[in-house]
Design a protein that fits this description.
By secondary structure, this protein is mainly alpha-helical. 51% of the residues lie in helices and 7% in strands. It has eight helices and two strands, in the order H-E-H-H-H-E-H-H-H-H.
Length: 142
C-alpha cells in the first residue's frame, strides 16, 4: 500500500493487487525493456541482477508483493490479492471473485446467462504482451 497515495486508506477505496510469478515477471520485463529501448540489449544476467537489487518501476518485487498479500489477509474486504496465473487458468472464477469483492456479485440470472464467461471472452488481450508506448508498462530505471 506504500505505493499508493496516502489518502487511499482513509477514503475506503478497494484495492485489487495483481501478482505474477517472479520468474515470469522477470522474463516479461526483459522482453519489454529490450523492445521498448532498442539497442540497449539488456542481458538476462543484467536484468536478473537489477531485479534482485530491487531496480524496478515499483521497487523490490518481494517488498510490494508481500506488503499487499499481508494487507489482503488483514483487510480482505478492502484488498484483493490476485495471481496472474489464476486469471490465466480460471478467468471465469476470477471474474466471480472480483465481482463479489467489488460488491456487485453476479446474480443467479447472470450466472445462468454466462456473464462471467462473456467477460472472459471479451478479454481477448489477456496474456497479450504490451507494446512499447501503449501505456501498459514502465521501464526499469537504469
Amino acid at each position: 500500500m506504500s505505493l499508493l497515495p496516502p489518502g487511499m486508506r482513509s477514503l475506503g477505496c478497494r484495492v485489487v493487487y495483481l501478482c505474477r510469478d517472479p520468474k515470469d515477471a522477470l522474463v516479461s520485463r526483459l522482453h519489454f525493456e529490450n523492445k521498448a529501448f532498442p539497442g540497449t540489449d539488456l542481458s538476462m544476467d543484467r536484468c536478473f541482477s537489477m531485479f534482485c537489487k530491487g531496480f524496478s518501476p515499483y521497487g523490490p518485487f518481494w517488498d510490494h508483493c508481500l506488503e499487499y498479500w499481508r494487507e489482503s489477509m488483514a483487510r480482505p474486504d478492502s484488498v484483493l490479492f490476485l495471481k496472474y496465473e489464476e486469471i490465466k487458468s480460471d478467468p471465469t472464477q476470477v471474474v466471480r471473485k472480483l465481482a463479489k469483492f467489488l460488491g456487485v456479485p453476479l446474480t443467479e440470472e447472470e450466472e445462468r446467462s454466462g456473464v462471467a464467461q462473456e467477460v472472459k471472452r471479451r478479454s481477448r488481450g489477456l496474456g497479450k504482451p504490451h507494446e512499447p508506448g501503449d501505456g501498459g508498462g514502465v521501464g526499469l530505471h537504469r
